[in-house]
Write a structure and sequence with these properties.
This protein is mainly alpha-helical. Helices cover 70% and strands 0% of the residues.
Length: 138
């Protein structure tokens, strides 16, 4: 059974503020954080309405979890959470002394992709020393 996909990025914006499909298309077409912020303005009005508040929250979660990551934007709160998770995993897998040493190394890393890579290393490195050596190499 064929199922055609509707690519909202290819269709011209028909205008209008109250149409969910129009808003979704606008949000999908954004190619910068500034465009995304401008396109999301109708959500402020929707969140003030009891009828549409849940929908506005769902869009806000999707924007922060999917669209912002698609644009390569990660805020400091996300980075701090990623560092905290890495340290927790390091404590569980390799002990507190290694986690303390790792905390110092992670403080200076502001690249989300790099933090994700370090998370993978936590899984594959045989020891804390191997993990720290790998951090020193990159």
């Amino acid at each position: 059974m064929a199922c055609p996909v509707l690519d909202l990025r290819r269709f011209p914006d028909p205008g209008g503020e109250g149409n969910v499909a129009v808003l979704l298309g606008r949000l999908q077409r954004c190619e910068s954080p500034e465009e995304l912020l401008a396109a999301a303005q109708p959500l402020q009005k929707w969140s003030a309405s009891a009828e549409y508040a849940a929908l506005a929250r769902a869009f806000a979660h999707w924007i922060s979890d999917v669209r912002i990551a698609d644009l390569g934007v990660r805020d400091e709160g996300w980075l701090a959470g990623e560092r905290k998770l890495l340290l927790r995993l390091a404590r569980i897998r390799l002990g507190e002394p290694l986690a303390s040493r790792l905390a110092t190394a992670l403080e200076g890393i502001a690249d989300g992709s790099r933090l994700e890579e370090i998370g993978e290393w936590l899984l594959v490195c045989e020891s804390g020393d191997a993990l720290l050596a790998r951090l020193g190499q990159h």
